[in-house]
Design brief:
- By secondary structure, this protein is an alpha+beta fold.
- It has a domain of about 240 residues: Nucleotidyltransferase, domain 5, CATH 3.30.420.
- It has 17 helices and 23 strands.
- The strands form 7 sheets. A 7-stranded mixed beta sheet has the order 17-18-16-15-21-22-23. Strands 3-2-1-5-14-13 form a 6-stranded mixed beta sheet, with helices on both faces.
- Strand 1 and strand 2 form a beta hairpin.
- Helix 10 packs across helix 15 and helix 11 runs antiparallel to helix 13.
- The longest helix is centred in the C-terminal third of the chain and has 27 residues.
- The termini are far apart.
Amino acid sequence: MSSKEQYILALDQGTTSSRAILFNHEGIIIGVRQIPFNQIFPRPGWVEHDPEEIWATQMEAARGAIASAQIESDQILAIGITNQRETTVVWERDTGIPVYNAIVWQCRRSSGICDELRKDGVESVIRDKTGLVLDAYFSGSNLTGLFRERPYLRVRAERGELMFGTIDSWLIYRLTGNHATDPTNASRTLLFNIHKREWDDELLGLMGVPRSILPEVLPSSGFFGATRAELFGTAIPVMGAAGDQQAALFGHACFEPGEAKNTYGTGCFTLMNTGPFPVASAHNLLTTVAWDLGKGYTYALEGSVFIAGAVIQWLRDQLGLLADSAESEGLARSVPDTGGVYLVPAFVGLGAPYWDSEARGTVVGITRGTTKAHFVRAALEAIAYESRDLLDAMEKDSGRNLASIKADGGASANSFLMQFQADILDRKVVLPEVAETTALGAAYLAGLAVGYWSGLDEVRKNWRQRREFRPEMDAAKRASLVDGWRKAVKAARSYR
C-alpha cells in the first residue's frame, strides 16, 4: 500500500453529464470534473445516448478529477460507480462495440409492448417478482422492443454474441473487461426476481430475452474487477456499484428503516429504507433493492418522477426563457405566486404515483396577465408538488410519518424551491454539507469494501447538515394550492 494519502474515486454517470469526484476519508471532495454529453431524440418520446460518448466523457471526467486534485493515480485506493438506471446498452461480446445507441430510461418507445403484456394478463406476475410496475421506464421492455425492431440482434443474442447491461455494466466492462452488475441495477430491468435474488426464467421468457446476454449480479460493495492499467497508469480495483438513487440513499446515511431522501435531478426520486424485507406498495410506488453489502439485501420503497430538474432545462434550452438554470430562483421570487398557473411537466408521461404513459405536459390557469416569471415559478413549484405526491404515497405504504426529509441533487441548490418544498410538504427539508451524495454513496460502497471506512457507524459520522428549511405556509393556503395541483394533473391525464 502506498505511503501517500489515499482517496476513493467515484464515477457518477448521469443522464445529461458524466462526473467524477475524489473523496477523502471525511467524505470531503478534493477533486471533481463534469462533462456534458449529447441527448438524442430520434422521434417524439424517444430518448437515446451514444454509449461511446458516455464512456469517453466518463474517462475524461475521471482523469480531470485526478488532475484537479493534484494527486497520482496510485493514491486512489478504489473506484465506486453510480449511474443513471434502467438505460439499456447492448454490445458485442468479442469487440465491445455497441450495436445500437443506449435507450434511455426516459424513452417511451416500448409503451406498446407494456400494453401487450397487460392484455396477456402477466402484469401481476411481473409486479410480484420484480416490485416494479409494468412501464417503458425499465430496461426489459426496451430490450424486447430492440429485438423486435432488429430481429438479427435477437439471433446474435441467442448465439451468445452480445452482452446487455445498464450503464454500470457498460462502464465496468470498459474499465475491467468483466460483465457484471449489482442488485440495485439488476432490480430495475423487469428481469430480476428481488425475492429469489436472481435473474428469473419466467420473466426472461415473457420479455424474449436470452439469459446468455445478462451480467453476473455481484454485491454492491465488493470486487468487480481491476481497471486495465493503461487507463490510469496503474490497475485500480472497482469495489462498489449502485444505481444513482440507491447510492444517494446510502450517501445520506439512511441506514435505518424509515429513513428517506429526495433527489432533485433530471427526474425526482424519493426513497425510503424498509430494511431486510421488501414492502409491497398499495399506492403505485416501486419496491426495489437499496443495496447489498454482501450480508443480505436491504430494500427500499421508491417514488419516481420522470421530469423534475429537466423542466428547468426545457425552459432554458427549448423555450429560451432562462439564460441559465440559476436565473429561475430570482424570477420565481419576483412574483408573489404563480397567478393561478400550474405546469404539469408530463413530457414523457407521468411516473409515480400515476404511471400514466399517455399523459402529456400541460399548463393551466394562463391569463392575459401571466408573465415569464409566473411561468418559471409554476415550473419550480411543479417539482415540489410532484415530490409531495410521492411522499404521501410513501407514508401510506410504510405506515410512517416523516418529520423531515433529506434532499440532494442539482435543484436542491435552489432555495426558493426548497422553501416551497418544505411549505407544501409541511415537513422539514434538510440539506447535507456535501451535496454530491450520489457520488459519495458510491465512494462509501467502494471504500467499505477495502476497509477505507471501518463500517456504517463511521460513514454515518461523516454526514453533516448544512441547512434546514422549515414549513412556514398556513394549512388553508397549502390545501388550496394542492387542490389546484390535483386539478391540473387531472387535466394532463385527460388529454389524449
